[in-house]
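Quick start: read one record
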Amino acid sequence: MTNPAPRPFGRYWVAMKALALQGGKLLLVRESTREGWWELPGGRIDSGEEHLDPRDVLRRELAEELGPTFQCVIGPPALTWIRPVRHEVAEFTFVVAHRCTQAAGVIQLSHEHVEYRWVDEHETFELDLAPSYAAPLREFWLGEKPRSGQEWR
């Protein structure tokens, strides 16, 4: 039996993102990059944060991106997916999105974002979403639809 050729490894970062909800609407932020894509607030785990609870990393990112008064209750991970960073050198971000409720406080965007919106399902897909965001957000909204005998969360 011959050994298969070794597979090349890609480089992966891990990002913690918030599926922040307020009144049945989801918070999205628009990147300040040239592309101006819409994404969930949050960001990558920094070097030295490996020992932290991932929710603490998300709290730090939310404070950095949305300002110190923004607060929410961070629940368990609800979605995961891979976002390409640079295909030509096999760089990717593994995204872990936590469902966050009771969002409150004044949002003060950092330099990383130029705009924010609270959007419903229909409005979500009218925006120019960041690469790889459409399918996970569709999955999220499917899970948010009330089931028989259940109220909207």
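Confidence is low (pLDDT under 50) at residues 147-153.
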